[in-house]
Amino acid sequence: MVLLGSGLVRAQVVMNYFIDEDPILKPSFALPVLVVCFLVSLIFLTKPPSNDDIVFLEYAQQMAFQPLATAPQDYVFHGMVLKNFVVFESTHPPLIPYMIKIALALFGNRMWPIHLMFAPFLMLATLSLADLIARKTKQSPYLALALTMGPLFLPQASSIMTDFPLLAFFLGAWAAWERTLETDRSQWFWWTLVFSVGATFTAYQGLAIFPVLLIRGLGERKIARTLVLIGLSLVPIAVWLGLVYRIYHLFPFFIEPRPELSVRGEVLRGMTGVAQKSMALFLYVGASLMSFLAVWLWQQRGRAILYGLGAAAGWGLFLAQRFLEHGSFYWAACLAGFGVLSVPVLAQFLINTAQPDETRSTKLSLMVTLIAFCLFQLVLAPFASPRYVLILIAALYVILLWNLQTLAKPLAVLCALFNIGLGLLVGVAERQYAGAQRIDLLDLPVEQTIHFVGEMGVKYSGEKRGYHYYYEGLNETVNYLLVAEGLDHTGIPSHLLEAADPIKRFSVSSSWPVMVDNPEQGTSLYIHPRGLLPFSWGSSEIASFTLYRCYRPVLPDWGREPQQFEPVGMILPERPFTYEVTCKQDGISKMDIYFATFARQNTCQMLVLVEQIDPLSGESLAEIARFHFTAESLEDNQYRSFSFASQNSAGKTYRITIKSPNAEATNSVTLWSNAAQDETYAMGTLQQKGQPGIRLWAGP
């Protein structure tokens, strides 16, 4: 009991040391915020992986616990096989993959422990932003919840990618550094070091924290401490990059790991989308502000009425978009316009930055962050999604709060609650969308080998079930192909689907009154200028999949140059058409015949007969299939397909016979042949030249 009492006393001393008179760390503020963050995180614990989540899962599963022990490997990205590609060493530092690796090692292939490990990032980002708001503005720190749990940030926090952890470490390092400069307490110095190292090891964009630390430290004339902090923070990442270069002979993005993913090529291609990216940035700004400024600006005067009008118009169009054919476009345009209205505030802030006062270095660091990430988004990485610039939005948020009239605490709490609800609305819709990508829940034939294409979430659940991801060059081995409609980022050769029959379609309906809209644009993690909140009201189809039976050609393409077509001749009772072929492969099970009706309506009866024959004597050994139909059902100059049981056909000879027992000169059909090709085929009773309009397919 004595030891327990002593421990409690020491814990209270430590808590008092950190809390002191600090409103952010007092239980009256911090505890409700942490509880809200935790409860919100629980909603997403079992969210399936979507988008690039699978990349982190794959790499974590292949990592060893010894640093840099992972060997280069073949990697499939959007259907391309990258040979000996060093995935994360060439694009990302290893902190997040190692976190996932630990969760996988401890709890197996489950998602909830991984999401639980990411919950502290939401807490850290919220408390750090609240601290910056309270210290740098006259606003209520509860407005931090209006951003971190709004529709822009919360869906990011429910993923397992680097974006939100980077934001949390960035804000944590910034807030801890402000406390270090203000109190000179060494504890905050070490927390700054931890968070800045965490930022650099989460994503290379985390290096952007150092200009902020440098400007603020020099501005407060803490030169020695600032240089020591930056030096200590850079040592781990410098050692890491040195090891990567020593083992793999590359620096991240400094050389091209593969021409298909070259930075230069992507930048040149992406420069055409700078205007679109600019609109997306204003879209972000408008959305992050509009959700609470409509309430705020009730107190405002003068030009601020424009914000209120913009907010009212934006929400009105959003709520009415179900009744508008292009509602999402107007919604996006209004949001973007609302973001543009922030430019005067930014201009005033920039003017104030030039004034020598005690806040000058803080303002300068904010502007450097803002400008740097704008340049990164628009110029250096125009191919990247706007979700990479959460830090930009956070910095802009503080700038605008600094320059606008103080919002009363009750209104701040009201706005925070409103944004939490809106963020949950988007997050839950996206959670359902991620779940709809689970092909392991589809009633697929388990005895068949199925290849599939689709986004990363589909890839994860498909490979988890034992199916195979389709990539370029697999055409000759694909028997069944599952295509996730609207999620296909893999280039499927047209001839593969032309030779495929859809045999089953799966539709996943929305059970939530709000569903993700325009799924071909991905989820809100990849926010598109057409709409920040890509969902619509009402239940409907949220995802769909089509299963195809694929066939491989047995005969060469006969060529279809119209000027070289010649009719085989009228198929009459005394003149049936026969065609013989020796197969080199197993599995023939489908036949297409290119009929011509002489551009008239024929009523004669037709028979198509497929037989296995003796190649020497020509005698029939077995009847494979027989098809009866009338010529009325034929379309002129169109293929007609005939399917039959798959045959062990390798090395065997087959005869295809087309008969008509009641045809006559004015009531008959024919098929085309390509007379330009001098192919040698066994001829039957009806003579023809070249290759006939017949396609044989081998399938499953």
Overall SS class: alpha+beta
Mean pLDDT across residues: 78
Per DSSP E runs of 2 or more residues, the count of β-strands stands at 21
Q: Which word captures the global form? A: elongated
Main beta sheet: 7 strands, antiparallel
Helix count from the secondary structure assignment: 21
Q: Determine the fraction of residues in helical runs and give it as a percent range.
A: 40-55%
Which terms summarize this structure?
700 residues; 7-stranded antiparallel beta sheet
Question: Could you characterize what this model shows?
Answer:
- This protein is an alpha+beta fold.
- Helices cover 45% and strands 17% of the residues.
- The chain is built from 21 helices and 21 strands.
- The strands form five sheets. Strands 10, 11, 13, 16, 18, 20 and 21 form a seven-stranded antiparallel beta sheet that branches. It has a five-stranded mixed beta sheet with strand order 4-3-5-9-6.
- A hairpin with a 6-residue loop joins strand 14 and strand 15 (620-630).
- Helix 3 crosses helix 4 (95-107), helix 13 crosses helix 14 (305-320) and helix 13 (274-296) packs across helix 15.
- The longest helix is centred in the middle third of the chain and has 28 residues, at 409-436.
